[in-house]
Specification:
Largest sheet: 8 strands, mixed
Number of strands: 8
Distance between the termini: 63 Å
Helix content: 25-40%
Strand order of the largest sheet: 1-7-6-5-2-3-4-8
Strand content: 15-25%
Shape: globular
Length: 198
């Protein structure tokens, strides 16, 4: 016989039911999870990581996938940090790694330049005043799923924890993070994704 308190402790009944999975490191989240979320998104792919460079390295044929999705009506957005900003330079001093923040951003810019002629793909730099606050939180949205990474102290993204959220209610965890990146997007400035800029 199952005791009610044991059942309740193992079944999510509150706001945490939107927490689908957690990983102690972003790198511990299988690449197959990212691939599935990207592949299954029909209306929204919003990558609001400060650099988002790793998705280009870890997801095969991502350019073709995003181009195809955009051509089929899926909105593709990237919200990046400005590689030349004070926030970026300060973070580079904190991390002190060879693959700098600005270099990682430029990996994304270089790939976005190859999508510059694709309708439905948009990219912005976050507003300078938002930089210090948003560099510590990455949110990647795929329709009603999101992967959220709060960056810890001096750690780079792959060493920070990750939460996989799945929307199940209004104004829940998922909506809070979705509204957060929409607000940042509204204050951002469009990136001219030409080869020269990348």
């Amino acid at each position: 016989m199952v005791r009610p308190n044991l059942l309740q402790s193992n079944v999510k009944t509150g706001h945490d039911r939107e927490v689908f999975a957690v990983y102690p490191y972003r790198s511990a989240c299988p690449q197959a999870v990212w691939a599935q979320l990207i592949a299954e998104a029909r209306s929204e792919v919003f990558l609001a990581g400060y650099t988002s460079y790793f998705v280009w390295l870890e997801q095969p044929a991502l350019l073709q996938t995003l181009r195809c999705k955009a051509e089929n009506g899926c909105r593709i957005r990237f919200l990046l940090g400005d590689p030349d900003s004070d926030t970026t330079r300060q973070r580079e001093r904190i991390e002190a790694v060879a693959l700098t923040v600005s270099t990682r951003i430029r990996v994304t810019l270089e790939n976005l330049a190859k999508l510059s002629d694709t309708e439905g793909v948009k990219a912005r730099f976050s507003a300078p005043e938002d930089g210090p606050n948003r560099i510590g939180l990455s949110v990647f949205r795929f329709d009603d799923h999101a992967l959220v990474t709060p960056h810890l102290a001096r750690t780079v993204g792959h060493d920070s924890p990750l939460m996989h959220l799945r929307r199940s209610e209004e104004s829940g965890m998922f909506d809070r993070f979705a509204e957060h990146i929409e607000e940042l997007w509204s204050r951002g400035s469009d990136i001219r994704t030409s080869p020269a800029r990348a």
